[in-house]
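Write out the bound-state structure for S-adenosylmethionine.
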Amino acid sequence: MRDVAAAAASTDPRVLPRNDPRQYDDLAGEWWRPDGAFAMLHWLAEARAALVPPATRPGAVLVDLGCGAGLLAPHLTGKGYHHIGVDLTRSALVQAAEHGVRVVQGDATAVPLPSGCADVVSAGELLEHVPAWPRAVAEACRLLRPGGLLVLDTLNDTALARLVAVRIAERLPTVPRGIHDPRLFVDAQALVAECAQHGVDLRLRGIRPQVGGLLAWLLRRARATGAAPAGRPPRIVPTRSTAVLYQGRGVRKG
Ligand SMILES: C[S@@+](CC[C@H](N)C(=O)[O-])C[C@H]1O[C@@H](n2cnc3c(N)ncnc32)[C@H](O)[C@@H]1O
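---
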């Protein structure tokens, strides 16, 4: 395995190409560290889970596309879903399984699950990593039963998103360097149109970390020596603009 710290800190594109899935193997030890390289994914998972209502029937299924190490799992506790996670990365799936997720190794563009099997499909911080993201959207919609709910969050294909999410955020300890390829960012209106083609009326809203909480967290983290910084992590809050980070929520027509 490559040196995780070097991989996380290096700006040298020779370490691994941007968006190379092997980065998730190198960073496998970071997933569940609340102050680690994937810290922001924890905050986003909480915000995404808040969009998911309690299950309305016994045996309800939530399919978590690009589930990573299952960070959504603790936020679904008590909502009554069987949580099925699909991801390419085995090292992440092993950890997801340890957190109660039923895991399936597979590609979000060709999911090995039957049509209409899901009451909820979640695609958190996935689409901006998938070169053929419309194919992943088609799969997400295919998996939903009529009346099922799609929830997602991703990065917009804008100059502002490239500035904030790559140039700035990848220099902070909240996002691993090189994890994004900005050429894959997802145009919000194209995403809405793609979902509509597959029977899902997707509604968007911009989101961002609450600024005071983020600054306090960064300060605590800079001062921390080894242990996780104390205090509440930053909240993800709605914001008027969808130009950087946005959530989507939509129901599949019956
Ligand atoms: C930024 S992480 C997000 C993980 C998780 N959704 C979360 O929010 O904690 C992106 C995940 O998508 C997975 N991934 C990337 N491309 C994929 C694809 N085509 N099919 C399935 N998983 C994919 C990666 O392995 C990684 O676990």
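---
The two ends are 48 Å apart (CA to CA).
Residues 1-14 have pLDDT under 50 and may be disordered.
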